[in-house]
Amino acid sequence: MLAALWAAGGRALTPSDVQRELGTALARTTVTTILARLHEKGSVSRTRSGRGYAYLPVQDSPGLAARRMRTELDKSAADDRGTVLARFVSELKPEDEQLLRDLLGQAGEDGLSGGAGTAQDGGA
Questions:
Q1: Burial class (CB in 10 A: 0-12, 13-18, 19+), 6
Q2: Any idea which fold 2-57 has?
Q3: Which end of the chain is more exposed for a tag (fewer CB within 10 A), N or C?
Q4: Whole-angstrom Cα distance, residue 33 to residue 20?
């Protein structure tokens, strides 16, 4: 669903539009239900369109991934955060670990540490 919304390039889509973009056999009611659930979770916004709604993604794909990662981290107990982050880093590919180090260094230099968000993470 989100892929269809992202592909629309900022144009709000109705459930029928999304159904057509996906090119699947999903019923319009199923598409409507999934979009409503994405709205409840804060992943999409909606505006009135006739008797129904048209939907827009709240964030791009990288921003949504960053938000999901932050949500999972926030679910962990305060004393487990270090363990969660350590395991996350230990499972990164070497090039991703280096990228993370570079981004952390850049954030420190720019005064962005502490969760201010950057353009690279979609502000999440």
A1: middle
A2: Arc Repressor Mutant, subunit A (1.10.10)
A3: C
A4: 16
Which whole-number Å values give the CA distances from 76 to 5, 93, 107, in the listed order? 31, 23, 24
User: How do residues 71-114 score in pLDDT, each as one tens digit?
Assistant: 888 888 877 888 989 999 999 999 999 999 999 999 887 776 55
What distance in Å separates the CA atoms of residue 18 and residue 1, rounded to the nearest whole number?
7
pTM, two decimals, is: 0.67
Distance of alpha carbon 31 from alpha carbon 89, whole angstroms: 36
DSSP string, 55-80: EEESS-HHHHHHHHHHHHHHHS-GGG
Domain ranges of the chain: 2-57, 61-121
